[in-house]
Specification:
213 residues, alpha+beta, two-stranded antiparallel ribbon, globular
């Protein structure tokens, strides 16, 4: 095999991946539109999108903020295209610092957005359903997100068949998005991802990331 053969093979591989990646992002965009997930800021470092959802069960946060069944809350979704790409060798210190910077910017932008929308004055809780590759990292993710004021409130044990199928479908989509952004970052455990439910009161969001802060 000549150098030109290798170059042509690499070009075809890259072109093929770009085409597949574009199709994956089109699918993700359509699903987001259907679910009402939107960008709440145009900041190039924001790593979250937003969805206004309704609570299904009563929950109470550490600072006393309550979330009643049927009450609206703000649900965060990863803005995959703006996440810092994971190096092929795996997450590095530089990558972690950049992600930390972007999360802080994202939450500051969220505080500003909510404060500018009188129609969202009833939003008292911000929720995130963080996917974790393996259950062993559940506590680790909780400790990391605690740095931003989030707390983990475990979901009730036992998922229904419908919930399990939905979770499996979400894991497939997450795997496709990881592949589309950085093919080398895709691992076998992406289909076995568990969820880490994290909560942040709006009071804490404004205290740590609002304009006064």
């Amino acid at each position: 095999m000549t150098v030109w053969d290798l170059a042509e093979r690499d070009f075809r591989s890259e072109h093929s991946h770009s085409l597949v990646a574009e199709l994956i992002f089109v699918l993700d965009r359509r699903l987001r539109q259907r679910q009402g997930v939107f960008e709440y800021t145009t900041h190039p470092a924001c790593v979250f999108r937003l969805q206004i959802s309704r609570c299904d069960n009563y929950r109470v946060l550490r600072d006393g903020t309550g979330l009643r069944a049927g009450q609206r809350f703000a649900q965060l979704h990863y803005w995959t295209e703006q996440m810092p790409p994971i190096p092929r060798s795996g997450p590095s210190i530089a990558w972690a610092r950049e992600l930390h910077r972007r999360i802080r910017i994202s939450l500051a932008e969220l505080a500003h957005y909510l404060g500018s929308r009188p129609d969202l004055a009833d939003i008292e809780v911000i929720f995130g359903d963080v996917p974790s590759g393996v259950r062993e990292k559940y506590a680790q993710i909780g400790r990391i997100m605690a740095r931003y004021g989030f707390e983990v409130i475990p979901e009730p044990q036992g998922l229904t068949l419908t919930q399990r199928l939905r979770r499996w479908g979400e894991n497939i989509l997450i795997s496709l998005l990881v592949f589309a952004q950085t093919a080398g970052a895709l691992h076998r455990n992406t289909l076995r991802r568990v969820r880490v439910p994290i909560y942040l009161s709006r009071r804490a969001l404004e205290e740590y990331f609002g304009e006064a802060a």
